[in-house]
Amino acid sequence: MKSVRVPLFLQQAVMRTLRQKLTHASHFLQQRFPEPHITYQQRGTIAGSARLQDWEIRLNPVLLIENQQVFIDEVIPHELAHLLVYHQFGQVDPHGKEWRFIMETIFAVPANRTHPFPVHSVRSKTFTYYCRCQQHELTIRQHNKVLRGKNCYVCRQCGEKLTLLEST
Protein backbone atom coordinates (compact mmCIF):
# COMPACT_ATOMS: atom_id res chain seq x y z
CA MET A 1 0.00 0.00 0.00
CA LYS A 2 1.24 3.46 -0.89
CA SER A 3 2.03 5.53 2.20
CA VAL A 4 0.61 9.02 2.58
CA ARG A 5 2.98 11.75 3.76
CA VAL A 6 1.50 13.96 6.47
CA PRO A 7 2.63 17.60 6.07
CA LEU A 8 4.96 18.85 8.78
CA PHE A 9 2.54 21.57 9.98
CA LEU A 10 -0.07 18.88 10.71
CA GLN A 11 2.45 16.67 12.51
CA GLN A 12 3.40 19.68 14.62
CA ALA A 13 -0.26 20.47 15.37
CA VAL A 14 -0.81 16.84 16.42
CA MET A 15 2.17 16.98 18.79
CA ARG A 16 1.11 20.36 20.20
CA THR A 17 -2.36 19.04 21.07
CA LEU A 18 -1.00 15.75 22.38
CA ARG A 19 1.46 17.54 24.70
CA GLN A 20 -1.18 20.01 25.88
CA LYS A 21 -3.65 17.21 26.75
CA LEU A 22 -0.91 15.11 28.36
CA THR A 23 0.21 18.06 30.53
CA HIS A 24 -3.39 18.76 31.53
CA ALA A 25 -3.93 15.10 32.50
CA SER A 26 -0.64 15.05 34.45
CA HIS A 27 -1.69 18.09 36.49
CA PHE A 28 -5.22 16.82 37.07
CA LEU A 29 -4.16 13.29 38.06
CA GLN A 30 -0.99 14.52 39.81
CA GLN A 31 1.14 12.04 37.93
CA ARG A 32 3.61 12.27 35.06
CA PHE A 33 2.94 10.26 31.92
CA PRO A 34 5.43 9.46 29.17
CA GLU A 35 4.77 10.93 25.75
CA PRO A 36 3.23 8.29 23.47
CA HIS A 37 4.82 7.42 20.16
CA ILE A 38 2.74 8.72 17.22
CA THR A 39 2.63 6.91 13.88
CA TYR A 40 0.63 7.64 10.74
CA GLN A 41 -0.06 4.04 9.75
CA GLN A 42 -3.76 3.55 10.54
CA ARG A 43 -5.61 2.35 7.46
CA GLY A 44 -9.20 1.99 6.36
CA THR A 45 -12.04 3.99 7.88
CA ILE A 46 -10.61 4.02 11.41
CA ALA A 47 -9.37 7.51 12.38
CA GLY A 48 -6.99 6.33 15.07
CA SER A 49 -6.13 3.55 17.46
CA ALA A 50 -4.26 3.25 20.73
CA ARG A 51 -1.77 0.41 21.10
CA LEU A 52 -1.89 0.06 24.85
CA GLN A 53 1.14 -2.10 25.60
CA ASP A 54 3.32 -0.18 23.12
CA TRP A 55 2.17 3.26 24.42
CA GLU A 56 1.55 4.23 20.80
CA ILE A 57 -1.14 6.13 18.95
CA ARG A 58 -1.73 5.29 15.29
CA LEU A 59 -3.41 7.93 13.15
CA ASN A 60 -5.02 7.65 9.73
CA PRO A 61 -3.03 10.06 7.54
CA VAL A 62 -5.74 10.44 4.88
CA LEU A 63 -8.48 11.31 7.38
CA LEU A 64 -6.08 13.65 9.20
CA ILE A 65 -5.23 15.54 6.00
CA GLU A 66 -8.88 15.71 4.93
CA ASN A 67 -10.23 16.86 8.32
CA GLN A 68 -7.22 18.59 9.91
CA GLN A 69 -8.21 20.62 13.01
CA VAL A 70 -11.43 18.79 13.86
CA PHE A 71 -9.51 15.49 13.55
CA ILE A 72 -6.81 16.79 15.90
CA ASP A 73 -9.36 18.18 18.38
CA GLU A 74 -11.34 14.91 18.58
CA VAL A 75 -9.09 11.97 17.70
CA ILE A 76 -5.94 12.91 19.65
CA PRO A 77 -7.76 13.21 23.02
CA HIS A 78 -9.83 10.09 22.23
CA GLU A 79 -6.78 7.89 21.68
CA LEU A 80 -4.73 9.49 24.45
CA ALA A 81 -7.61 8.83 26.86
CA HIS A 82 -7.40 5.11 26.00
CA LEU A 83 -3.71 5.07 26.93
CA LEU A 84 -4.28 6.98 30.17
CA VAL A 85 -7.17 4.71 31.19
CA TYR A 86 -5.02 1.64 30.58
CA HIS A 87 -2.17 3.18 32.59
CA GLN A 88 -4.44 4.12 35.51
CA PHE A 89 -6.98 1.27 35.59
CA GLY A 90 -5.61 -1.59 33.49
CA GLN A 91 -7.88 -3.58 31.18
CA VAL A 92 -11.38 -2.04 31.43
CA ASP A 93 -14.24 -1.33 29.01
CA PRO A 94 -12.61 0.70 26.18
CA HIS A 95 -15.34 3.37 26.19
CA GLY A 96 -16.48 2.87 29.77
CA LYS A 97 -16.89 5.27 32.67
CA GLU A 98 -13.13 5.72 33.18
CA TRP A 99 -12.60 6.70 29.54
CA ARG A 100 -15.64 9.00 29.58
CA PHE A 101 -14.34 10.67 32.76
CA ILE A 102 -10.99 11.47 31.14
CA MET A 103 -12.63 12.70 27.94
CA GLU A 104 -15.31 14.88 29.53
CA THR A 105 -13.83 15.96 32.87
CA ILE A 106 -10.11 16.18 32.19
CA PHE A 107 -10.01 16.96 28.46
CA ALA A 108 -13.40 18.73 28.18
CA VAL A 109 -14.08 16.91 24.91
CA PRO A 110 -17.34 15.08 24.08
CA ALA A 111 -16.91 11.35 24.68
CA ASN A 112 -17.85 10.17 21.18
CA ARG A 113 -17.08 6.53 20.44
CA THR A 114 -16.87 7.03 16.67
CA HIS A 115 -15.73 9.83 14.40
CA PRO A 116 -18.03 11.87 12.11
CA PHE A 117 -15.64 12.13 9.14
CA PRO A 118 -16.64 11.23 5.58
CA VAL A 119 -14.88 7.99 4.64
CA HIS A 120 -15.50 7.73 0.88
CA SER A 121 -11.81 8.32 0.11
CA VAL A 122 -10.63 5.52 2.43
CA ARG A 123 -13.42 2.98 2.08
CA SER A 124 -12.49 -0.23 0.36
CA LYS A 125 -14.67 -2.19 -2.03
CA THR A 126 -17.95 -3.31 -0.50
CA PHE A 127 -20.26 -6.22 -1.25
CA THR A 128 -24.04 -5.93 -1.28
CA TYR A 129 -25.94 -8.38 0.91
CA TYR A 130 -29.64 -8.41 1.55
CA CYS A 131 -32.24 -9.61 4.02
CA ARG A 132 -36.02 -9.39 3.85
CA CYS A 133 -36.14 -5.70 4.86
CA GLN A 134 -33.10 -3.96 3.34
CA GLN A 135 -29.70 -4.05 1.64
CA HIS A 136 -26.43 -4.11 3.60
CA GLU A 137 -22.92 -3.17 2.51
CA LEU A 138 -20.24 -5.50 3.88
CA THR A 139 -16.54 -4.75 3.68
CA ILE A 140 -14.17 -7.03 1.82
CA ARG A 141 -12.96 -8.37 5.19
CA GLN A 142 -16.51 -9.21 6.28
CA HIS A 143 -17.28 -10.72 2.86
CA ASN A 144 -14.18 -12.92 2.97
CA LYS A 145 -15.13 -14.18 6.44
CA VAL A 146 -18.53 -15.19 5.06
CA LEU A 147 -16.87 -16.98 2.11
CA ARG A 148 -14.54 -18.89 4.46
CA GLY A 149 -17.45 -19.84 6.72
CA LYS A 150 -15.93 -17.97 9.67
CA ASN A 151 -18.86 -15.52 10.12
CA CYS A 152 -22.45 -15.05 9.18
CA TYR A 153 -24.13 -11.70 9.58
CA VAL A 154 -27.71 -11.07 10.69
CA CYS A 155 -29.87 -7.99 10.13
CA ARG A 156 -30.42 -6.01 13.33
CA GLN A 157 -33.90 -5.00 12.12
CA CYS A 158 -35.52 -8.25 11.01
CA GLY A 159 -33.09 -10.83 12.40
CA GLU A 160 -32.67 -12.60 9.06
CA LYS A 161 -29.31 -13.97 7.92
CA LEU A 162 -27.72 -11.77 5.22
CA THR A 163 -27.36 -13.22 1.74
CA LEU A 164 -24.97 -12.06 -0.98
CA LEU A 165 -26.68 -10.21 -3.82
CA GLU A 166 -25.31 -12.01 -6.86
CA SER A 167 -24.29 -9.65 -9.66
CA THR A 168 -25.47 -10.58 -13.13
UniProtKB/TrEMBL annotation:
Binding annotation for Zn(2+): 78, 82
Q: Does the keyword Transmembrane helix apply?
A: no
Q: Short name of one Pfam family for this protein?
A: Zn_ribbon_SprT
Q: InterPro entries this protein is in?
A: SprT-like_domain, SprT_Zn_ribbon, Uncharacterised_SprT
Instruction: Tell me the ranges covered by the SprT-like domain, including all copies.
Output: 16-165
Per UniProt, subcellular location reads as:
Cytoplasm
- What are the required cofactors? Zn(2+)
GO MF annotation terms: zinc ion binding
The cofactor note from the UniProt entry for this protein is: Binds 1 zinc ion.
Keywords, A to Z?
Cytoplasm, Metal-binding, Zinc
> What do the Gene Ontology cellular component annotations say?
cytoplasm
What is one Gene Ontology biological process annotated in the Swiss-Prot or TrEMBL record?
Answer: response to stress
Q: Which residues form the active site?
A: 79
Q: Which family does it belong to?
A: Belongs to the SprT family.
Entry protein name: Protein SprT
